[in-house]
Amino acid sequence: MKKMDDKKAPWLDESKSFQERAAALVGEMTLEEKVFQTLFNAPAIERLGVPAYNYWNEALHGVARAGVATVFPQAIGLAAAFDEEMMGEVADVISTEARAKFNMQQEYGDRDIYKGLTFWSPNVNIFRDPRWGRGHETFGEDPYLSGLLGTAFIRGMQGDDERYMKVAACAKHFAVHSGPEDQRHSFNAVVSKQDLRETYLPAFHACVTKGKVEAVMGAYNRTNGEACNGSKTLLGDILRGEWGFEGHVTSDCWAIKDFHEFHMVTKNQEESVALAMNSGCDLNCGNLYVHLLQAVRDGLVEERTIDRAVTRLFTTRMKLGLFDKKDEVPFNEIGYEAVDTGESRSFNRRVSRKTVCLLKNADNLLPLDLSKISTIGVVGPNADNRKALVGNYEGTASEYVTVLDGIREYVGDRARIVFSEGCHLFKDRVQGLGMANDRAAEVRAVAKMSDVVVAVMGLDPGLEGEEGDEGNEFASGDKPNLNLPGLQEDILKELADCGKPVVLVILSGSALAIPWEDETIPAILTAWYPGAQGGRAVADILFGDACPEGKLPVTFYRTTEELPAFTDYAMKGRTYRYMKQPALYPFGYGLSYTTFELSDASVTGEVGGEITCRAVISNTGDREGAQTLQVYVKTPLAGGPNAQLKGLCKVTVAPKNREEAVISLAPEALGVYNEKGRRVLVPGEYEIFVGMSQPDARSCELLGTSPKRFVLTYRGKEREI
After folding, report:
1. How many CB atoms lie within 10 A of CB 302?
2. How far apart are CA 32 and CA 48, in angstroms?
3. Phi and psi at residue 149, to the nearest 5°
4. Pairing of strands 170-174, 188-189
5. What is the DSSP letter of 585?
6. Which fold has domain 350-578?
7. What phi and psi values does residue 644 have, to the nearest 5 degrees?
8. Residues 75-80: what's their mean pLDDT?
9. Has 675 been annotated as catalytic?
């Protein structure tokens, strides 16, 4: 690549701002050069010393699709930790490995896809319906939690250097996007102003205003008739107008051609690229933006609009230090030895432990006492399933530890392990030429031999994922229902009939309807897709080397039938915030091996000002554990949501010790959006619940304790906040 003389190249003048330098560089380009820089695989401009750059990279739960990297638990599992600090630490490890891999790839001239520093993560869409195949990429169903964790992830990715970004993060998919996958290219998500503002936008708002995310990706669908990648409302009025976003916007991949092929909001390619560019979509994941040349000639797009887009794109590259001297950018010092270290694998195991949610533990069956066990049966299609460790958008681990591997390693020669696949994950037989339920006899034999059976069931990314994913059993990527697929429940019934204690371990990226299991199986935990070290983490939990601390980031419903229509984007009847019926397992719920008591709870402040919530959490059990203080707010707005999460604080408490947790609520935390989409305070009583769960009756029943209730009264007039 040609080296430019600093005196002749003002974009190399490090005394100027990144935006000034980017604008100077763009000012030297021809129209054709600028147009080709709006493609995700931007070519080199030799005469200006601009190297080729590919914007498309992924890092949902580790650097993805580019060789070996630490593969953390899937995003939904990370969310279950309810741990803002941990999320930032995970993202910091990811971004360190990202820089290490990038530096190595640059050394060898590798500028391929998945080799840049612009990562299209996190996914902060709201997991509004458990059938959505991509829900496991998200942080769950709650806007506050999604925004909190998304912001922590972004900060960990982008770093805290005063001048340079470590990597560039991207919040996606903007906005009102959560299936159905097989209709996403043509679907119009119709949503009220109230639901838009109360549910679908807050996480993005937090990522932009608090996380300072560098990029935002549009969604495939339309929202209220506007194609999201060409939406004046979303990209212009809200993102840049209201929120002051200064980074760049990228389309989802090949989404712009949907404008004229499926959404029918434009007539042809030129009109589609014009609509996207004029609306503020700067980068095209796809190749349609080559038609911007003709769109300019036809007067559909002004060249200065393209200048603005390309300036934004090069500002990002400038912030990453890609045009500065190597020794000026601290992240250039990160060597490839920082990838897949022993320290990161150990950290991954600790993270995975934190994500496990204990849902039931009758008679304290868990943790298992190896001194009283001679044979352990391990049964189920996910017991030795690597795919069920990692979810989608994954990297390549140097080691995969399945649940079966983890149990064997932990137990060693202290007990015998006997294994049966039990059944196929979703088919009615394991062997194609066999009869239906062809492992039933083996299951009975294993159970008869065993003192306890660990049944590892659930899903894998072949059953829930993105539309068009290769190898996805359901071509749409969405689940048809919430049931355990195939013969899994039949096998669990076989095990229950054998009379041996059964521990059910669920590996999945979403909620399942398991009311029979809840009534019958004595111990149940969900480990999500627990990452490459997941088997060790699950074993640590099963045998008591770690204490469960995860909380559900989604509601577990009792039946599929109680869900509203999948295509209905109204929030009524959806998620813990709007449902009326009791959940099987509620959002925010999770048991521990130790016991906690809440005392000295208090709420100080007034409606319209900052509010401070305090409580002391005492560990009354005999082992160390972590507990999450949760604060929920119920406003007096007629037709408003149920009490919803507005603050959390996680504390680790030694046995027979106590820790104080303090949560501050900003004034807007008590605001709620009305039918006009305005956040308001209304006269009346504001209920604030401080506890270890949400205040619904089912949570209180399961935990045997209730949050403390406080009431603050607002007597002023209704006003925006």
Report:
1. 13
2. 14
3. -75, -35
4. unpaired
5. B
6. Rossmann fold (3.40.50)
7. -125, 150
8. 98
9. no
Q: What residues contact 110, with CB distance under 8 A and at least 6 apart?
A: none
Query: What digits encode the pLDDT tens for the residues 492-538?
Result: 999 999 999 999 999 999 999 999 999 999 999 999 999 999 999 99
DSSP 9: -
Measured CA to CA in angstroms, residue 558 lies from 511, 563, 566 at distances of 10, 10, 16
CB 692 within 8 A of CB 596: yes
Q: Tokens for 650?
A: 């996680």
Residues of the chain with CATH 2.60.40.10: 596-720
Angstrom distances, CA of residue 186 to CA of 90, 189, 225, 408:
36, 10, 11, 49
Catalytic residue among 252, 467, 494, 549: 252
Q: Answer yes or no: 701 catalytic.
A: no
Kindly report the average pLDDT of the chain as a whole number.
97
Contacts of 71 by beta carbon, 8 Å cutoff, 6+ apart: 61, 62, 348, 389, 390, 394, 395, 396, 397, 531, 532
Measure the CA–CA gap between 331 and 194, rounded to whole angstroms. 43
Contact 175, 202 (CB under 8 A): no
Do the beta carbons of residue 47 and residue 2 sit within 8 Å? Answer: yes
Helix (H) or strand (E) holding 154: helix 143-158
Is it the case that residue 669 has pLDDT exceeding 80?
yes
Residues in the chain: 721
Strands 53-54 and 708-714: unpaired
Dist CA 75 CA 61 (whole Å): 6
d(CA 248, CA 171): 11
Active-site pick, 464, 467, 494, 696: 464
To 5 degrees, how large is the angle CA 336–CA 337–CA 338?
Answer: 85
Listed in sequence order, the residues at least 6 apart from 162 whose beta carbon sits closer than 8 Å to its beta carbon are: none
Using the CB atoms, write b or e for 148-182: b if 16+ within 10 Å: bbbbbbbbbbbbeeeebbbbbbbbbbbbbbbbbbb
Domain at 596-720: CATH code? 2.60.40.10
Q: How far apart are CA 119 and CA 54, in angstroms?
A: 11
Tokens describing residue 280: 């503020």
d(CA 463, CA 473): 6
Domain with CATH 3.40.50.1700 in the chain: 350-578
Of 485, 483, 506, give the one whose Cα is nearest residue 563: 483
Measured distance CA(57)–CA(55) in Å, rounded: 6
Q: How far is residue 586's CA from residue 592's CA, in Å, rounded to a whole number?
A: 15
Q: How far is CA 101 from the centre of its chain?
A: 23
The conformation of residue 482, written as its DSSP 8-state character, comes to: S
pLDDT computed for residue 447 by the predictor: 98
Cα(493)–Cα(453) distance, integer angstroms: 13
Q: CA-to-CA distance for 694 and 417, rounded, in angstroms?
A: 39
Look at the pTM and tell me if it is higher than 0.90: yes
